[in-house]
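Allow me, if you will, to draw on your knowledge of protein folds for a short while. I have a record of one protein: its chain in single-letter code and its fold written as discrete structure tokens. I remain grateful for any guidance, and I place the record below:
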Amino acid sequence: MNSRSIRLVSVLAIQYPWLLAGVSAVGAQSGASAVAPTGQLRIALNVGNPVLAVKDTATGEVRGVTVDLGRALAAKLGVTVALIEYPNVARIVDGARSGLWDIAFLAVDPARAGDTDFTPPYMEVEITYLVPTGSPIRTTADADRPGLRIAVPSRSTADLFLSSVLKRATLVRGETEAHTFEMLRTGQAEAFAANRNSFETFTAGLEGYRALDDYFYTVPHAIGVPKGQSLALATVGAFLEEAKASGDVQRAIARANLRGVRVVPTSVTK
């Protein structure tokens, strides 16, 4: 194991010893080769969620918190980067089963644990509703009423969470966040569930919509690695702890101008 990988894993050994269970079985394999066995870090990016990544339609450039952190990890490991763009989280989860990426920036949810192992979270994001300005819905609790349709991106964290807690309202699902907003705009739903940054993206230049002041859920976000890769998980997790402690995560959030997003303290464990 090279000195960089030893330093990364040592940090995590102190703060998150549970992550290192099973690392001995990997033997002397370095952290870099465990995370990026091809010598190139293949990063799965959800360009359908503006809080994670945004693609400039004019230049094709992808930017955001996940791009900044992914490139920083690759530099730390001494490998090149391949940004793999996905339109939604469902496609990323499918990609894990096919071995198409090395790391993915995802919301943490137990439903994804069958295919992916997660580091401790690095940030959490508020999830609430966007509604038409004249809607009688004033708080998130108001949205759970008979006959009300709530649009959510399919298999998103909002979908997974609301599926388990709603008692009266009905979920209607879109393929991407953009498609889901269109369901609200065209009257196929009375509310759209997502993070505040998504709302600002889709309503820019439009009138007639408002986001609720409260939120029904905060979503922890972490880096996922393919299931069962203990050393890769430990190495990536240690990198994130360093990035949080150094302020790199907070700076990435600020550069992306995100709202309703905050760094998860290093003292928070899984």
Q: What stands out?
A: Residues 3-124+220-263 form a domain with the D-Maltodextrin-Binding Protein; domain 2 fold (CATH 3.40.190.10). The CA atoms of residues 26 and 156 lie 33 Å apart. The radius of gyration is 19 Å.
